């Protein structure tokens, strides 16, 4: 970096950190401990002006550029060796206009920060199931969580944005202004620029909801039976229910579970019902009453609390490798493969997650994210602590994905896509039939592919 002139950074509204400064060890890290990189500079952006300066610094000096929203990219996109990191966390303002039903969200806000504002009015934007993920990474590549079947993917609620493009211009997009950019932001990742403000439509949610969260014993074929019940339940579930099943072995020391159950196979059901909570309890009873629960945190609770329920389970700095396949149906063969993998994970922190995609997740989006007819997204997530065990943990995920692949539609969810080692092939299969159109938008706005540390689609050739 000795050859790079950092003097433009003196004009920042925010600040920056370089190696050797006290904060450097903190700011260089992201959530996934698999990525131990050393950026040349981390710019803590406080305004679109700062983002423009950072983009210019990378562009004019030929440095790699990483954009960080909430820093929770499982694929490690928001840090880079010897390059520029734009940390958007200081831009986390959330302003709700109840009358228009639109919330303006800073480019570095987390979903917890959004919920804190919208839930005061019983409103929400569909986010994920964890409050610390950034709005940026999650929504730009799709985004689904506890209200997906009622209101669709996060990107489907995106109605406008302010972004900084590769030439450092600040541009606004909505249905009338540069609609190609809005189209690309709905599922096309960070390919066309750095979003400094999102505009989302909000929807009525809670503030109290019925939440099902129960672990059932998975011994003696319990996992296939539970997944069979889950399939039957989901086949007739109303759109007001968004349900998830996950299977694994009870981790040692899990709070709220009797010690003799540690190490036992389990299937857990989690679901949110939007509407009268007592009606939700009735609707979800079959999943609740499947067996005598090993653990049960079900009940009427605030949507904000539901959103934070999994926060303690994913502390920063541990090691993670997550991948996914989409299935049109949950046949017996898939169930058997899932159950086999779930009872022999390489780490007891790992699970195989089975998300039901129903209701509005099947509605076409006017955006880069293709419509899906898949009813299930299967996501094996390996979570572990010991660097010596990387290979077996990654191998466990890859093994299940490879086994399920022939039963799937070939599409990966781009936020759960391993470390994107399948490169362009992954992007083509997961964005088809919108890949070419996204490449053309990319060519218009980022012809040099400056924004490439992401779910990258290279610019279409001129
Ligand atoms: C614990 C945990 C739980 C999760 N749960 C869910 C879930 O329920 N549903 C779901 O859909 N996904 C979920 N995910 C996946 C999540 O969507 C991705 O990991 C996502 O990348 C996180 O976004 P982020 O902003 O925190 O990431 P970051 O690491 O900050 O960013 C990732 C990439 O997104 C792009 N980006 C981020 N912000 C901007 C911006 N403002 N402008 C332009 N580009 C930007 C950049 O390319 C960046 O490299 C979860 C992840 C974790 C770690």
From TrEMBL:
InterPro entries: BBE, FAD-bd_PCMH, FAD-bd_PCMH-like_sf, FAD-bd_PCMH_sub1, FAD-bd_PCMH_sub2, FAD-linked_Oxidoreductase, Oxid_FAD_bind_N, Oxy_OxRdtase_FAD_BS
One family name in Pfam for this protein: BBE
Sorted UniProt keywords: FAD, Flavoprotein, Oxidoreductase
Protein origin, superkingdom: Bacteria
UniProt KW Transit peptide keyword: no
SUPFAM superfamilies for this protein: FAD-binding/transporter-associated domain-like (SSF56176)
Entry cofactors: FAD
All residue ranges annotated as the FAD-binding PCMH-type domain in the record: 35-205
Family note: Belongs to the oxygen-dependent FAD-linked oxidoreductase family.
UniProt-recorded name of the protein: FAD-binding PCMH-type domain-containing protein
Organism annotation: Microterricola pindariensis
């Amino acid at each position: 970096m000795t050859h790079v002139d950092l003097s433009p950074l003196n004009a920042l509204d925010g600040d920056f950190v370089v190696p050797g400064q006290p904060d450097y060890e903190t700011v260089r890290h992201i959530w996934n401990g698999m990525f131990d990189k050393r950026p040349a500079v981390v710019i803590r952006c406080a305004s679109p002006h700062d983002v423009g300066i950072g983009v210019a610094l990378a562009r004019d000096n030929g440095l790699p550029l990483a954009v960080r929203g909430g820093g929770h990219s499982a694929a490690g996109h928001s840090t880079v060796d010897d390059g520029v990191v734009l940390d958007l966390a200081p831009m986390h303002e959330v302003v709700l206009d109840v009358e228009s039903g639109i919330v303006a969200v800073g480019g570095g806000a987390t979903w917890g920060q959004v919920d804190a504002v919208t839930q005061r009015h019983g409103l929400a934007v569909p986010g994920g199931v964890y409050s610390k993920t950034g709005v940026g990474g999650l929504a730009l590549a799709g985004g689904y969580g506890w209200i997906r079947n009622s209101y669709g993917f996060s990107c489907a609620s995106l109605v406008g944005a302010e972004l900084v493009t590769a030439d450092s211009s600040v541009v606004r997009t909505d249905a009338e202004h540069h609609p190609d950019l809005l189209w690309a932001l709905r599922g096309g990742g960070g390919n066309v620029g750095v979003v400094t403000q999102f505009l989302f439509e909000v929807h009525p949610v809670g503030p109290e909801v019925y939440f099902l969260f129960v672990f059932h014993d998975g011994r003696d074929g319990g996992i296939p039976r539970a997944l069979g019940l889950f399939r039957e339940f989901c086949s007739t579930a109303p759109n007001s229910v968004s349900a998830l099943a996950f299977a694994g072995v009870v981790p040692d020391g899990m709070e709220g579970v009797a010690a003799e159950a540690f190490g036992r196979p389990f299937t857990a059901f989690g679901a949110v019902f939007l509407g009268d909570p007592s009606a939700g309890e009735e609707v979800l009873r079959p999943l609740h009453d499947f067996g005598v629960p090993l653990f049960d945190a079900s009940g009427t609770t605030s949507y904000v609390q539901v959103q934070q329920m999994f926060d303690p389970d994913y502390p920063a700095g541990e090691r993670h490798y997550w991948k996914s396949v989409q299935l049109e149906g949950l046949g017996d063969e898939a169930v058997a493969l899932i159950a086999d993998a779930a009872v022999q994970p390489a780490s007891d922190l790992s699970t195989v997650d089975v998300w039901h995609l129903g209701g509005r997740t099947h509605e076409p989006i006017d955006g880069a994210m293709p419509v899906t007819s898949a009813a299930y997204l299967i996501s094996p997530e390996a979570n572990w602590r010991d660097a010596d065990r990387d290979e077996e943990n990654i191998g466990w995920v890859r093994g299940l994905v490879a086994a399920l692949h022939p039963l799937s539609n070939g599409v990966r969810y781009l936020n759960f896509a391993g470390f994107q080692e399948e490169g362009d092939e992954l992007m083509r299969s997961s964005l088809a039939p919108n890949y070419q159109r996204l490449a053309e938008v990319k060519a218009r706005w980022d012809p040099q592919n400056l924004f490439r540390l992401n779910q990258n689609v290279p610019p279409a050739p001129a």
